[in-house]
C-alpha cells in the first residue's frame, strides 16, 4: 500500500511512523487511520524491526486530533464506525509485541493525545501540548481517551482534563505522569532513538514478553497477573537469549543476543 498521509522510515532495527498531514496539523481522517492500520500490521510483521517510534511531521503538531472537518456531518452510525476504527488501530498499536514510543513533538490533542497514550510510553518536546478538547466540540473522546487517560494519570486528574477540555503543556504532562521525559525540540528524535537503541540491545524476546506481561497483567486482577508473569518468566528459559544473557554475565562479557 502506498501512503498519502504517513511517512515510514527505517534505521537499523528502528522504524519511524510520521503522521504526515502537516497542513491539517496531522489530524486523523478515515484514510489516515486505514493507512496506519496497514503500516502497523506491516511493521509488526517486519523481522528487521524491533522498536517503533510514532511522531508527527512538521514543526507544530504530533496529531491535533481526529479530523473535525471529516467528522462534522457524520451520522451516529458513521460516528460509531469511525470511533471503532480509531479504537481498532490504537488497540493494534498497544497490542504490538514490539515496543512503541511516542515522540510528541507538538500538539497532541483529542485523537492525538489518544494516539500518544496507546504507545508504551511518551517522550515529549518542550513544545508539546496535551489535552482532550472533545467536550468543547460537543462530543466525548472516541479513540480510547476516556479509558486510557484515567489508567495513566488517575481518575481525578483525568476527569478534570476530560470535563474542562484544558490543554496542558509538557511540564504539566510530566508532573502528572502522562509523559516520561521532556527534552528540547531539537533533541527529541535523538533522545527517543537513544532509548530505542538501548531497548534494541537487549534480548528482544524478553522485551516483548515483558510488554505482554505488563499489558495483560494491567487488565486483570493481581493473582492472575502474577500467574501470567510466572508463565512468561518460565517461557524465557526456553530461549537462546536466556542462555546467552546468563552465560555472558557469568563470563563477565557483553551478551550477544540473537532474538531466539
Ligand atoms: N481536524 C481538522 N483540521 C484541523 C484540526 C483537526 N483536529 N486541527 C487543526 N486543523 C487544521 C485547521 O483547521 C487549519 O486548517 P486551515 O489552515 O485549512 O484553516 C490548520 O489545521 C491549522 O490549524 P489552526 O489554524 O487552527 O492552527 P492554530 O495554531 O491557530 O491552532 C490548535 C492550533 C490549537 C491545535 C487548533 O488547530 C485546534 O484547536 N485544533 C483542534 C484540536 C481539537 O479539538 N482536537 C480534538 C478533535 S476531536 C477528536 O479527536 C475526537 C476523538 O477523540 C476521536
Remind me, CATH topology of the largest domain?
Answer: 2-enoyl-CoA Hydratase, Chain A, domain 1
> Could you say which overall geometry the principal axes of the C-alpha atoms support?
globular
Give the SSE string. Answer: EEHEEHHEEHEEHHEHEHHHH
Largest sheet: 6 strands, mixed
Mean pLDDT: 98
CATH class of the largest domain: Alpha Beta
Produce the secondary structure layout:
Blueprint: E1 6-11, E2 14-19, H1 30-44, E3 51-56, E4 61-63, H2 68-71, H3 76-95, E5 100-104, E6 107-109, H4 111-118, E7 121-125, E8 129-131, H5 145-153, H6 155-164, E9 167-169, H7 170-175, E10 181-183, H8 188-200, H9 204-218, H10 222-236, H11 240-250
Parallel strand pairs: 2-3, 3-5, 4-6, 5-7, 6-8, 7-10
Antiparallel strand pairs: 1-2, 8-9
Helix pairs in contact: 1-3, 3-4, 4-5, 5-6, 9-10
Question: Which descriptors apply to this entry?
Answer:
2 domains; 11 helices; binds acetoacetyl-coenzyme A; 2-enoyl-CoA Hydratase, Chain A, domain 1; four-stranded mixed β-sheet; 260 residues; Lyase 2-enoyl-coa Hydratase, Chain  A, domain 2
Amino acid at each position: 500500500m502506498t501512503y498519502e498521509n504517513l511517512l515510514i522510515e527505517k534505521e537499523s532495527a528502528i522504524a519511524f511512523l510520521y503522521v504526515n498531514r502537516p497542513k491539517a496539523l496531522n489530524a486523523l481522517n478515515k484514510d489516515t487511520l486505514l493507512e496506519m492500520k496497514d503500516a502497523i500490521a506491516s511493521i509488526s510483521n517486519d523481522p528487521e524491526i524491533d522498536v517503533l517510534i510514532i511522531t508527527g511531521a512538521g514543526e507544530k503538531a504530533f496529531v491535533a486530533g481526529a479530523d473535525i472537518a471529516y467528522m462534522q456531518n457524520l451520522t451516529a452510525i458513521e460516528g460509531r464506525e469511525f470511533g471503532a476504527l480509531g479504537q481498532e488501530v490504537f488497540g493494534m498499536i498497544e497490542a504490538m509485541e514490539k515496543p512503541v514510543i511516542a515522540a510528541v513533538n507538538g500538539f497532541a490533542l483529542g485523537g492525538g493525545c489518544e494516539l500518544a497514550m496507546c504507545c508504551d510510553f511518551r517522550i515529549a518536546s518542550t513544545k508539546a501540548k496535551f489535552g482532550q478538547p472533545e467536550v468543547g466540540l460537543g462530543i466525548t473522546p472516541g479513540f480510547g481517551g476516556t479509558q486510557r487517560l484515567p489508567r495513566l494519570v488517575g481518575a481525578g486528574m483525568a476527569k478534570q482534563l476530560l470535563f474542562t477540555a484544558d490543554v496542558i503543556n509538557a511540564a504539566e504532562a510530566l508532573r502528572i505522569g502522562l509523559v516520561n521525559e521532556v527534552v528540547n525540540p531539537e533533541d527529541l528524535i535523538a533522545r527517543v532513538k537513544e532509548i530505542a537503541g538501548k531497548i534494541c540491545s537487549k534480548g528482544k524476546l524478553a522485551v516483548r514478553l515483558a510488554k505482554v506481561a505488563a499489558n495483560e497483567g494491567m487488565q486483570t486482577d493481581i493473582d492472575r497477573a502474577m500467574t501470567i508473569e510466572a508463565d512468561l518468566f518460565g517461557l524465557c528459559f526456553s530461549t537462546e537469549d536466556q542462555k546467552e544473557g546468563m552465560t555472558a554475565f557469568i563470563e563477565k562479557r557483553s551478551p550477544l543476543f540473537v532474538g531466539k
